[in-house]
Amino acid sequence: MLKNILSISGRPGLYRLVNRGKNMLIVEGVSTGKRTPAYAHDKVISLGDISIYTTEGDTPLSGVLEAVKEKNDGNPVDVKALGSDEKVREYFETILPEFDKERVYTTDIKKLFSWYNLLLAAGITDFAEKEVDEEAPETEEGK
User: Fold this and answer.
1) How far does CA 20 lie from the centroid of its chain?
2) Cα–Cα distance for residue pair 42/37, rounded to 1 Å
3) Residue 107: how many CA atoms within 13 Å on its side-chain side?
4) pTM of the model
5) 123 vs 31, 62, 70, 116, CA distance in Å?
6) Cβ distance 113 to 69 under 8 Å?
7) Do 119 and 64 form a contact (C-beta atoms < 8 A)?
8) pLDDT, tens digit, for every residue of 56-111?
9) Of all helices (H) and strands (E), which one includes residue 74?
10) What is the b/e burial string over 65-81, where b = at least 16 CB atoms within 10 angstroms of the residue's CB?
């Protein structure tokens, strides 16, 4: 699900990939629904490709978003209510205790919470990738 959700550097919000054109992508704002082009010179990254540094390696963003959802019972995170940067980091530590405190900045955590809130507002609540069952029976055609 997160593979089609994009972050574009220099533009606020998140975008859903709609189509691909020559030297551009057609994207739709998750919160606005407005379609715009994203050109080859724009720095575009899929949320499915992002991970958070931990002491044991990296944790995919989908796993972190699922942990945030569990911690908040599916409700949005109120970053302003948390207060200072130190409180934000303490709260994030209750969600992902093994995050690398030196390489993960408070701005990264706030951006993660902001993305989580945007996705919830857009009705996207399934963050984990569904595994495809390779042993599922195949249908026989043409018999």
Assistant:
1) 21
2) 10
3) 0
4) 0.83
5) 10, 15, 16, 11
6) no
7) no
8) 889 999 999 999 999 998 899 998 898 899 999 999 999 999 999 999 999 999 99
9) none
10) bebbbeebeeeebeeee
